[in-house]
Specification:
Elements: E1 3-11, E2 17-27, E3 36-40, H1 47-54, E4 66-67, E5 70-71, H2 77-86, E6 87-90, H3 104-114, H4 120-133, H5 150-163, E7 168-172, H6 180-197, E8 200-205, H7 208-214, E9 217-222, E10 225-231, H8 232-237, H9 242-249, H10 290-294, E11 300-303, E12 306-308, H11 317-320
Parallel strand pairs: 3-8, 3-9, 6-7, 7-8
Antiparallel strand pairs: 1-2, 4-5, 9-10, 10-12, 11-12
Helix pairs in contact: 3-5, 4-5, 5-6
Bound molecules: iron/sulfur cluster and magnesium ion (MG).
The site of iron/sulfur cluster (SF4) has 13 residues, from loops.
Length: 324
Amino acid sequence: NDLVKHYPVGRTLSGRPKSVVHAVDGLSFHVDRGETLSLVGESGCGKSTVGRAILRLVDITMGQIVLDGRRIDDISQASLHPVRRRIQVVFQDPFSSLNPRMRVRDILAEPIRNFRLATGQDLERRLGELMDMVQLPRDSLGRLPHEFSGGQRQRIGIARALAAKPDLIICDEAVSALDVSVKAQVVNLLQDLQRDLGLALLFISHDLAIVEHMTQRIAVMYLGKIVEIGERRQIFGDPRHPYTVALMSALPTPDPETRRRRVTLVGDVPSPIDPPPGCRFHGRCPLAGETCRRIEPDLRQIAPGHWAACHLDDISAMTRDATV
Ligand code: SF4
Ligand code: MG
């Protein structure tokens, strides 16, 4: 709720920070049990910071993080232990997130022991179950990470997250480093597990093509803020923020008749240090007007569950003109 994460950078002679990075700047969303919410946006928009804040790997500047009705942003390290079990993460890089000197058996047993979930025979049974869940052969429990392919390593990373019996898994670019065909397999696996185990999944990704296939709801982030949030069909079928339209126009569509018009954005994401006034997207938005430079748009409800932060009611000019 109203999550803010600012980083001070540099120091003046008086000891005050020279400037402030607005990594996350007032953002609210929820993820339900058994649901996948995707957080999308270009790199540097703050989506990984949101994930790390929820994992309590970084302290937040303002706002609240609530798990099952209970705040977890202000609790002590000691009471954090059971919360850590309930929120697990799968990182982007399966090559560096697994200890190269640990056998798969020990990688998976670590969280089970750490959270006192099983010992002895039960632990052994659980290890087998976890390997089945991620469709890896049980007899490879004794092998080291380098003996596996990239996709298999990411399956080990998923099994490690599942070992803690979490309620929420945060996937931060979890399939981005994988080859296209492997990517699809791992995404399908995540979807099946999410459904079978009733997990909540926060899927952080810059890749809309993947997101289109695996999510119920989507939140689009730009410069530390959510600019649009809604169900998949709303975001893909009726996007209401020019930034969402631009992101989606880069997606290939199978049917040339319905091909989305390509909208090329000029410039890069501006620096999150001293973000621009008014709408943060105005420097790159083809529809920006005078108001946009001065007044920051709030999220407005378009339809039940569908919100967008743009001053304009009608953004069809984005897709009407040949090139914007
Ligand atoms: Fe573009 Fe203005 Fe809408 Fe921002 S508020 S997205 S600048 S039209
Ligand atoms: Mg990131």
